[in-house]
Amino acid sequence: MNDGNTPPGSISIRFLSGPLAEQSFPIRKPIVTIGRGENNDIVVRSDQKVSRIHARLRWNGASWSVEKLAPQNTLSVMQSSILLLFTAFMEPLHQGVFLPVGLEVLTTFVLSSLAGLALGLAISAVSSNSDSATSFIPMILLPMVIFAGVIIPLKDWPLQVPAMLFPTRWAMIALRSSLGVHSETTGKDSLIGSAPSYHGTLFSIYSQSDATQRILLAWACLGGIILLLLITIGLALKAKDVRK
Question: Comparing C-alpha atoms, which of 103, 96, 112 is closest to residue 199?
Fold first, then answer.
């Protein structure tokens, strides 16, 4: 008896072109990955256009969904580069803290883009179907905006502590520190207690060492958030495989 979570029998996928052209593969699992990596359920060799984990098929209880994973990391980096070029064209950037300002800003953009990508994949991994994943989006986006500290300056512990869990918070700290934004002119936004969030060197009382430490802290926290999200994705997908 099919419990709704197990794909129906006699289902297969047939490739029409490429190295696996005219070959068919039976689908017996609720989650099937396709890519060049040997750990995939369907391995596509000898095609450099296919990434290590290129796509994922998922049975949602009533229908199949296809998630294309390949270009997302590259696309995030490209989007970050285009955004930086557009920003620099409209308003030339000033000095950086310990790297050329463009490189500092690009690093922050890339890390925050990857964090956003990992967050989206984590939501998809923990959700039972696409409708459930979609319903999570407003519940995630609104706190991301609030706890970034841009629209609403964070001055008290009850807001400052949970804000540390959101990548937008650390992205704004790194970005504004690189660009020389002062906390005093942005509503006195504070990281912890009354400690100013932004430590830039442009017309600032902070030394290069202070500003460098603040930016590296923000980057490290973004990296930590990405790592935690990747672990969450792996555990969620593993749990789904076990349940199925």
Answer: 96
Q: Is the pTM of this model over 0.85?
A: no
Minimal CA–CA distance to 199: which of 219, 222, 221, 174?
174
What are the residues facing 130 on neighbouring strands? none
d(CA 55, CA 41): 11
Q: How far from chain centre, in Å, is Cα 236?
A: 16
Q: Which long-range contacts (CB under 8 A, 24 or more apart) does 224-230 make?
A: 225/115, 225/118, 225/165, 225/167, 225/170, 226/111, 226/114, 226/115, 226/118, 226/167, 229/115, 229/118, 229/119, 229/121, 229/122, 230/118
pLDDT of residue 160: 93
CA 103, CA 107: separation in Å to the nearest integer? 6
Predicted pLDDT of residue 123: 85
Helix/strand/coil for 55: strand
Phi, psi of 141 (to 5 degrees): -65, -40
Q: Per-residue pLDDT tens for 129-154?
A: 667 777 888 888 899 999 998 888 99
Other CB atoms within 10 Å distance of the CB of residue 206? 20
First to last CA, the chain: 13
Integer Cα distance of 48 and 199 in angstroms? 44
Q: What are phi and psi of 127, to 5 degrees?
A: -90, 145
Length of the chain: 244
